[in-house]
Structure prediction request, 633 residues.
Amino acid sequence: MVKDFESLPHTADIKIRVYGKTKKDLFRHALIGMFQVIGPKIAGCHVESGRVVCKELPEKHDIAVEALDDVALLVDFLSEALYLSDVNNEAYLDVVIHELTDQKIKATIYGAKVKGFEVVELKAVTYHDLAIKKVDDVWQADIVFDI
Amino acid sequence: MTEQTLTREDFIKIDEYTYEIPKSYRPDMRVPARVFMNEKMMADILQDRAVWQLVNVSTLPGIKKYAFAMPDIHQGYGFPIGGVAATAIDEGGVISPGGIGYDINCGVRLLVANMTAAELHPHIEKVATRLFHKIPSGVGKGGKLTFDIGELDSILKGGAKRMVELGYGTARDLEFCEENGCMEVADPRLVSERAKKRGSDQLGTLGSGNHFLEVQEIDEIFDEKAAQAFGLQKGYVTVMIHCGSRGLGHQTCTDYVRTMMKKLPEWGYTLPDRELIYAPFNSQEGQDYFAAMAAAANYAWANRHMIGHWVREAWQEVIGQQAELATVYDVSHNIGKVEKHHINGREYKLVMHRKGATRAFGPGRPEVPEKYKQVGQPVLIPGTMGTSSYILTGTKESMEVAFGTSCHGAGRRLSRAQAKKTVRGSQLREELERRGIVIRSDSDPGLAEEAPLAYKDVDNVVNVVVGAHLARKVARVKPLAVIKGG
Prediction:
């Protein structure tokens, strides 16, 4: 199975490496990774191999973001999800991307209400070390979150 | 700019506590980069990219003297944590949100009790529990207070001052707070709707990560005269609050990084690191960011003020009306200020960036409360869970050497993943409890990540700061109870 994301060591914050066969996959795995790695506590979901697994994700939001390039777009997309997470007390574990260019994304994110986070809550998505590149025919990006 | 790894050999030793990367190290440096550290710390400090980030800071337009870093330096965003930079407004000086941080006005408030640790002992468990229930972390749920936009705007404008008007805390609390708990330049209109939505129900919450509430005992006095002025006596109890501007501040920084990033093609400059994005202070974007930053800073002061109020309520509910807590001081360690300083005999108006660094003004400065003027400004240095915290004071030398700045805490050494592998949360809880420290925390993994071994030794960090004359030791406190927000 192709890896979607993994946790990387970082001195003070949270860092993930995200993979995707396509850029849509990359963006999708980035969103999922961002929330999975902080351990959302969701009623009715269970943890399997270190991932939160839910039978259903009843909350959904449409996101439309524009930015100057794909790196800025990824940061702005994830920041939008983080904003929604904070005001609604939700975590998002899946997304359907309707449209994606290097400057624009339209998507619907799916999630559920959280009681809190096992690990920590995120303060922000940063540009730190963020480069979107192809390695061995797979898209890859390292994303650091401030906590 | 391809990154190069720095080594020992790149540093020039200025003295036992000061090391410098000269301007010649890289062509885009405008000033040298200086790290306050000792020989022992160097290997650790070179382990992450903090010093590379400091070199990047030295390229900022208008930067004066040096790009500084405190001994608790570690990798941050744009600026390293522990990074300090002053840019001259009249020389095209810039303001950079990364030099202030996502958690605008993360800081520390210290209160002192009118009772000793021995007198508190029979109440400590109950007090810890009451604090845990009274002061929410606000994570995954709101806090106890919700404000509509109008009320929130008045808090963004008035900070802790507004909270006093609303009936929380006292006017005296304002006197013993940096900026008296309110930066007048704040403009709530420049804080986004998004940031306000996030902040509307988070006032009076601690947040998570390394934020905490601690009940402490003053276990050592280093300077009798200063301690007396600050109201600190050996054996007495203190309460320390460490938190910031919550989602409102994080969103504000995110918003302005985004705004500035969008202007980058028009401004046309290149950045060694996107997170170092900046705007000329006198530009619209620079001014807007500063006014929004000040509003977020006011929110954080209102937050610590509110939590201080509830700490008092919890205290009195358990112990009785006669049990009092007085604010010693409140400092910010992630903030931008406009300050006047002398450099080579000339006075400059500077944009001071202190990220993971604390203002440490010396005796006689007008910003220091009257009661402390002869001594200097209190500098509050929180240790990590289960370790000592320090109260220092600013010095005249600090003004000359580092624009009146000191460290902010211990600085991270291990990554959170490494900390978790090395220390299990429940183990840590047991160990701390065995040492008589009462813990109230929802999350065990969270505890492990904050384990003291994940941090540099706060004693070493403080000793370097003192050795470099950036501050003087006044007192040390040890934890009696740690509360991480319910």
User: Anything to note?
Assistant: Residues 70-88 of chain A form the longest helix (19 residues). Chain A has a mean pLDDT of 93.
